[in-house]
Amino acid sequence: MSRGLALFDFDGTITRADTLYHFLRHAVAGPRFYLGALALLPVLLGYKLGLVGNARAKSLVLRRFFRGWPVERFRAAGESFCREVLPGLIRPGALARIREHQARGDRVLVVSASLADWVGGWCADQGLELAATEAEVAAGRITGNFAGANCHGPEKVRRITALLDPAEYAPIHVYGDSGGDREMLALASEPHYRPFR
């Protein structure tokens, strides 16, 4: 008998808000956050209007706020974010569904464009596998670039199929909330679009 598979997007699906903004507020001190946000206003506006892509916008944000940070400092900020902030952003319905899949013995994988540094600790605590965007590190410091591709859109499917063969699982439940999940949702025998809202 085939084992079930549950694939969850993170931001907006498991959480009620985008975690990048909340991570920035957690990790970056007040005046520096506001000055950085002001400098990035054209990028953020371009992203909202569809003129700047997801990967480009996120990379520019990371460079502005974190380029040059020692990797230990960046990861510590992610760990404290997972403990102190992230639990308050989780949708109860999403967590309940995760627990249902785990109780059935399904394989549960979170597939996120967010960086593993601020999502990974929470996923590990919940017993979840994670495929996420990774931060590039050079000489022990954050560069502001990605190590590999941004885990968004078609890259989500590439990451999933690098970890497993979907043909070995049935049923396949996929949970997503945006256009960045379209390709992942196409893998599903049972797709769920914005199910916890």
Detailed description of the structure:
The chain has 197 residues and is an alpha/beta fold. It has a single domain (3-193), classed as Rossmann fold. The protein has nine helices and seven strands; from the N terminus they run βααααααβαβββαβαβ. It has helices spanning 19-27, 30-39, 41-48, 54-66, 71-84, 92-104, 116-125, 154-163, 182-185, and strands at 3-8, 107-115, 129-133, 135-138, 141-146, 169-176, 190-193. A five-stranded parallel beta sheet has the order 3-2-1-6-7, with helices on both faces. It has a two-stranded antiparallel sheet with strand order 4-5. A hairpin with a 2-residue loop joins strand 4 and strand 5. It starts with a strand and ends with a strand.
Q: Report the CATH C-level class.
A: Alpha Beta
C-alpha Rg (nearest Å): 17 Å
Number of strands: 7
Largest sheet: 5 strands, parallel
The helix-and-strand class reads: alpha/beta
Low-pLDDT segments? none
The assigned CATH architecture is 3-Layer(aba) Sandwich
SSE diagram, text form:
Elements: E1 3-8, H1 19-27, H2 30-39, H3 41-48, H4 54-66, H5 71-84, H6 92-104, E2 107-115, H7 116-125, E3 129-133, E4 135-138, E5 141-146, H8 154-163, E6 169-176, H9 182-185, E7 190-193
Parallel strand pairs: 1-2, 1-6, 2-3, 6-7
Antiparallel strand pairs: 4-5
How would you concisely characterize the structure shown here?
The protein has 197 residues and is α/β, with parallel strands linked by helices. The protein is built from nine helices and seven strands, in the order E-H-H-H-H-H-H-E-H-E-E-E-H-E-H-E. The chain is 46% helix and 21% strand.
